[in-house]
Design goal:
By secondary structure, the chain is of the alpha+beta class. It is built from twelve helices and 13 strands. It is globular, with a radius of gyration of 20 Å.
């Protein structure tokens, strides 16, 4: 089968979070070759007509969609599946609407709230200006559209309402529109899901453990923790799949909620849901990651390995899910 691997165009000057897509392209291309498929990598820019022309010339039977942003903007990533819908080319992973919703954290939280799924309280900058902040500190400040912890650092946790509006304005000027949500102190979990005969399989849960963090350093997975290998945050933020027997009830609840997210957001292929569990064992859904990173060192791939699923099987199942959907 001829497969086009669609990915966001990057350059040598791109940041680490953007360059990571090249590792994914290489990993997927090698795996497709092992599965006896022919693949061609196709970069996506804002020149969508050029992308259309390239795909029409290639005439792929399938597109493996690895696009994480377009022109450096994650809010545009849903253009890729929309373009493929227009061309009527089957593609892996999630569709246009789920990607549009989950790329925007406000839309995600509104969808979770309407489905009675637990997510921390939040307000937009405009709402804070108009009404004041409606919940107690500490606060977590986040960009609305950026993923991969872009715009998240130790200053993103704010412990007072003083100057909150000014800080939100400054962050919005730097990272694009930002919002504020309640900071949930406690444990952080990632639950990955992979399609299995058109049904989602919840992979082994991972906990992100913060080792030897000083009291004045917030326990969050910020940009340094993900991308700056020499930083304290990177070296001391550890993924673990080992749990005590007492954690079983929480893990079961997390699995149930992850499956509900899959259904509510009409996900397909593969996804990851990020959670916080507070000091009262209440669970909070932070984000839905449709089409999460699948580079060799990613959390999603770590979960598949923990489940004993080789990457060839992962790719085969993602492709098989497309065939099931398209008939």
């Amino acid at each position: 089968m001829k497969v086009a691997i669609l990915y966001n165009d990057v350059s040598s000057t791109s940041d680490a979070d953007e360059l990571d897509v090249l590792a994914q392209v290489k990993y997927v291309a090698a795996t497709l070759k092992n599965l006896r498929h022919k693949s061609v990598a196709v970069p996506v820019t804002l020149n969508l007509s050029q992308v259309i022309d390239t795909l029409r010339k290639l005439q792929p039977e399938l597109v493996f969609n690895l696009v994480e942003s377009i022109a450096g903007s994650e809010k545009l990533l849903h253009f890729a599946p929309a373009l493929l819908d227009y061309l009527k080319i089957p593609y892996t992973g999630n569709g246009t609407h789920p990607l549009y919703l989950t790329t925007n954290k406000i839309f995600t939280k509104q969808k979770l709230q309407s489905a009675n799924l637990p997510t921390p309280p939040w307000q937009t900058l405009d709402e804070v200006i108009a009404k004041g902040i409606s919940f107690q500190p500490p606060y977590m400040l986040k960009p609305v559209s950026d993923d991969a912890s872009v715009g998240i650092n130790s200053d993103s946790v704010v412990y007072s309402a003083d100057n909150l509006i000014e800080i939100l304005k400054q962050n919005s000027a730097r990272y694009g529109e930002c919002f504020v949500e309640a900071y949930i102190a406690g444990r952080e979990f990632n639950l990955s899901l992979l399609a299995n005969d058109s049904q989602p399989e919840v992979l082994p849960p991972a906990e992100i453990r913060f080792i030897n963090f000083p009291a004045d350093r917030p326990q969050i997975v910020d940009y340094k923790a993900k991308w700056e290998e020499e930083s304290f945050e990177y070296r001391n933020t550890v993924r673990s799949f080992d749990f005590e027997h007492a954690d079983k009830p929480i893990l079961k609840q997390l699995s149930t909620l992850a499956l509900q997210c899959w259904e509510v957001f009409e996900l397909r292929g593969y996804a990851r849901v990020d959670f916080r569990v507070d000091n009262y064992n209440d669970i909070w859904i932070l984000e839905i990651n449709a089409n999460p990173c699948i580079s060799p060192d990613s959390g999603f791939v770590a979960a598949t390995q923990q489940a004993g699923i080789e990457f060839e099987q992962v790719v085969a199942r993602i492709i098989q899910d497309v065939k099931k959907i398209t008939g």
